[in-house]
Amino acid sequence: MIKAILIFNNHGKPRLIRFYQYFAEDMQQQIIRETFHLVSKRDDNVCNFLEGGSLIGGSDYKLIYRHYATLYFVFCVDSSESELGILDLIQLICFVFGQVFVETLDKCFENVCELDLIFHMDKVHYILQEVVMGGMVLETNMNEIVAQVELQNRMEKSEGGLSGAPARAVSAVKNMNLPEIPRNINIGDINIKVPSLSPF
Amino acid sequence: MPAPIRLRELIRTIRTARTQAEEREMIQKECAAIRSSFREEDNTYRCRNVAKLLYMHMLGYPAHFGQLECLKLIASQKFTDKRIGYLGAMLLLDERQDVHLLMTNCIKNDLNHSTQYVQGLSLCTLGCMGSSEMCRDLAGEVEKLLKTSNSYLRKKAALCAVHVIRKVPELMEMFLPATKNLLSEKNHGVLHTSVVLLTEMCERSPDMLSHFRKLVPQLVRILKNLIMSGYSPEHDVSGISDPFLQVRILRLLRILGKGDDDSSEAMNDILAQVATNTETSKNVGNAILYETVLTIMDIKSESGLRVLAINILGRFLLNNDKNIRYVALTSLLKTVQTDHNAVQRHRSTIVDCLKDLDVSIKRRAMELSFALVNGNNIRGMMKELLYFLDSCDPDFKADCASGIFLAAEKYAPSKRWHIDTVMRVLTTAGSYVRDDSVPNLIQLITNSVEMHAYTVQRLYKALLDDISQQPLVQVASWCIGEYGDLLVSGQCEEEEPIQVSEDEVLDVLEGLLVSNLSTPVTRAYSLTAIMKLSTRFSSVNRIKKVVSIYGSSIDVELQQRAVEYNALFKKYDHMRPALLERMPIMEKTATNGPTDIAQTNGETDSTILDTKHLPSITHPASQANDLLDLLGGNDVVPVIQTTVPTKPASAGGELLDLLGDLSLTGGPTPTPAPSVPMSQPPFLLDGLSSQPIFNDIAAGIPPMTAYNKNGLKIEFTFERSNPSPNIAVITIHATNSTEADMTEFVFQAAVPKTFQLQLLSPSSNVVPALNQGSVTQVIRVLNPQKQQLRMRIKLTYTHKGSPVQDLAEVNNFPPQSWQ
Q1: Could you confirm whether the keyword Phosphoprotein appears in this record (chain A) (predicted)?
Q2: Less CB within 10 Å around the terminal CB: N or C of chain B?
Q3: Searching chain A, which residue's CA lies closest to the CA of residue B291?
Q4: Residue B638 binned pLDDT confidence (cut-offs 50, 70, 90)
Q5: CB atoms inside a 10 Å sphere around CB B62
């Protein structure tokens, strides 16, 4: 099980924080600080696994992390997850971010911009929700994930979204016909080009 | 009231803050605005406000006042509202607050919503933070969704079911029927989550486990398809088809095959196939291989497969990717117990990993290396490990040092090698060794009799170099104290003997006493060493001076020792040589039965080592003061040799009682040659607590007069015990027929080499005049070879003011006492 997913930048500022186990607020912040402390000390040529800090886990928890440019992606997992598999998962998630946020399709994961994560905090959560649910891996097919996220975003947009002006929102609700939205998403309908992915 | 600002706007504003205080101010202002907006019950802007609240929550600011608002959002009809509302619920709410119970109805409705995304949201929320009550209420809905044909919902329902089972294990049965055709699903997402669900159920219940064993063929088939199928663009990751699913299935197979022959049999082929066919150039391939290896090692696989698995791990060790090396070492550590020989083949690779830059890899390599050490490779391995010890981080040094000591103890090819190794550890990592290594090393050195000269010479040289490492210094000073005579005499077979004078040695020891680097314990060691040298060196005056100086030391331990040694010089000079004799060979065993005496007494030692000492005097060579040193001193009357019992206090108590009537001027109470301080002296305790053992089975062994001269008569009475017929117990009775008391009476006895002797404490050391009383003392003699008992006794006492000393041979023992 994945206990927590933490994404923060090189200075320790949180960009996405998701705990799948209950921790009080101040505890959460402390964990973030401690994790940043542990991970930022690491050299670039050491392995990506750390025995967890004292706060977040006992003996069964490990920190698995990847460092891309200005962002640290840290997963805190227990022994039921495969370490190498989690590394692959982190890469997958970065790819997905890249797909959703960046318009042109040839971008690889290294170009996930920190600003994207900053300004679209809510979207980032929604994307993550399609990959990991309740601390367990839900879906690993990138196309599926992206498709589902896009569809939901479209629904939101048609309602006016979070930033929609009130008038537009009201009319959008009136105009939206919920039952018509298809239940089954057929991959064939969505036109997503398979990107040339850089090696895992 | 103006429209609340948008989320992006807020983020932008907060990022302009230059200090923490500025940021806090902005956030507080915004929180106030949000609060008033909430109070106005404005439906349109609620979602925006909650989004902002979640952002601020991530930065670490309190956001609890938004909890109820999340619930209102969830109840709204808009998808946007629900989306942010559910997210808020997952981030801000948890079981500890009752407010989440208000969600149950909403979730129930949403689980049946017409829009699948709404259903998905509610499944997600329930699966993340649903409490046991909520799970109980809604399990039925989840189970229904588990059977739907909508793959988007089905996979979410599967993970939600896992959460429900975790919260309410009794509900597991409920999901059993729905699992029937989960594995026939084509959609990989559903397959994946189904395998997760099955794994959870198998891990929780052995019944489920046996029930699901029948799925093994199906799982094998799915795995086979994944491997064999051609390129499938949907699931392809670097040329491998859905590696995540493969790993999941392999893990489930592991659980199903563990301990079960049939299932393991069914998996053997596919495991071999995966192991040989998987492309290893990318991380995904290695993840699959790794999982395969773990599965092979856990189930009852055939040995060929196991060897294949370990070889894969060996190959991993050579991989450039440090992550792969790390996981390989971790698994090898787990398998080294069961498949030792196979892992041995990769020993050189593992030893190379000691030189890796990564701390976690080094640690694992070190643990693995220790596990692989055996009699054959000890020399080579030790070289590598010592080299590692030199260069590793301080955190490792303590563990590495203990590991080296253990390995050396078990597999040392020769005593010299052992001592060399230990010395090397002490000189390189001396400050990190554990406390008990000092007595262990001392014992090792004592027992390697032929190496004494070599050892003391090396230690002396090490001291000259560096006196900062306390364990080394302590061992060195102890050795110099013991074997200083060998040091100055310049005899050393093993290496070039050095020329060193007595004064130089004393300089070094005194240097330790005054140095700031020495701890109090070290000082105590060096003081005692100096004292011991008084019987081995000729420059006694210098030693006397040193000892008297420290009689007024502030350190209570040093002071006590110095005072005692002073007393030894002044009043008990005649006993000094015997007290400060060489230590006997020590045994480490803690339990010695009465017939299992492994100790040698001083007599044996003196024939080997110190010919200049009074021969055949059985001073159970507990150089008491050394003993006291090693045990950190005690407050039993100092000059009296006692084995400070580390046994239960009762033993000590009895001992003290016995000595209670002795005055300070009493002679030493000969006690059994103690082994390493930690062990118990079996004789003593037996003698004290269980006299009745020695019933007069061989009743009627006639007593005898052993000595009768100058008014002093000593009689021996005998007992032999039934359980241990090799032991004879002799009680001496000393009587005095002269008109003056004989004070300071000390009886000593020595026996030939084939015997062993133990003197217990005398009843007193004054033999009253005119036969008014007697001094009794118990001697226990072990005679395993049943040879004729002979004894040489020495008597010392003061009579009418002048000391008297006499030696005698006792040969007329009755045959029943030794046959």
Answers
A1: no
A2: N
A3: A82
A4: very low
A5: 13
Instruction: With beta carbons less than 8 A apart as the criterion, state whether B518 and B472 touch.
Output: no
Which of A82, A126, A154, A175 to substitute to test the interface with B, most B CBs within 10 Å? A82
Task: Tell whether the model's pLDDT for residue A173 goes beyond 90.
Answer: no
**Strand order across the beta sheet in which B791-799 lies:** B742-750, B791-799, B802-810
Residues in chain B with CB shorter than 8 Å from the CB of A180 are none
Cα B679 to chain centroid distance, Å, stands at 20
Q: Which of A20, A165, A183 sits opposite B116 (nearest CB)?
A: A183
Give the Cα separation of B248 and B530 in Å (integer): 70
Q: Look up residue A43 and give its two tokens.
A: 């050299």
CB distance B124–A48 less than 8 Å? no
pLDDT of amino acid B640: 33
Tens digit of each residue's pLDDT (9 = 90 or more) over B663-676: 333 334 333 333 33
Which tops the pLDDT comparison, B433 or A129? A129
**Chain A residues whose beta carbon lies within 8 Å of the beta carbon of residue B359:** 46
Return the pLDDT at A112. 59
Whether the model clears a pTM of 0.90, i.e. scores above it, the answer is: no
How far off is chain B from A12, nearest CA to CA, in Å?
11
Assess contact for B32 and B53: CB atoms under 8 A: no
Number of H helices, E strands in chain B: 35, 10
Report which of A146, A65, A82 is spatially closest to residue B196, judged by C-alpha positions: A82
Q: Do A134 and B160 touch (CB under 8 A)?
A: yes
From residue B619, alpha-carbon distances to B580, B614, B767 in Å are: 10, 10, 21
Count of helices and strands (H, E) across chain A: 6, 7
Q: Which residue has the tokens 């103690």?
A: B674
Restricting to B residues 72-131, those with a Cβ less than 8 Å away from any Cβ of A are 77-80, 83-84, 87, 91, 94-96, 114-117, 124, 127-128
> What would the pLDDT profile of A28-78 be if each residue is shown by its tens digit?
898 999 999 989 988 877 889 887 556 665 667 889 999 987 889 999 998
CB contact under 8 A, B156 and A137: no
Distance from CA of A22 to the nearest CA of B (A): 7
Residues B172 and B340: their CA atoms lie apart, in Å, by 40
What is the sign, positive or negative, of the torsion defined by CA atoms of B236, B240, B246, B247? negative
Given an 8 Å threshold on Cβ–Cβ distance, is B323 in contact with A133?
A: no
Cβ-based burial of B44 (10 A; exposed 0-12, middle 13-18, buried ≥19)? middle
Long-range contacts of A54-57 (CB under 8 A, 24+ apart): A55/A27, A55/A30, A55/A31, A56/A3, A56/A4, A56/A31, A57/A3
Contact A88 B283 (CB under 8 A): yes
Nearest to A49 among B51, B247, B323 (CB): B323
Asked if B249 is an interface residue toward chain A (Cβ–Cβ < 8 A), one would say no
Distance CA B147, CA B684 (A): 79
| Interchain CB distance below 8 Å, B128 and A141 | no
Chain segment A77-94, per-residue pLDDT in tens: 988 888 899 999 998 898
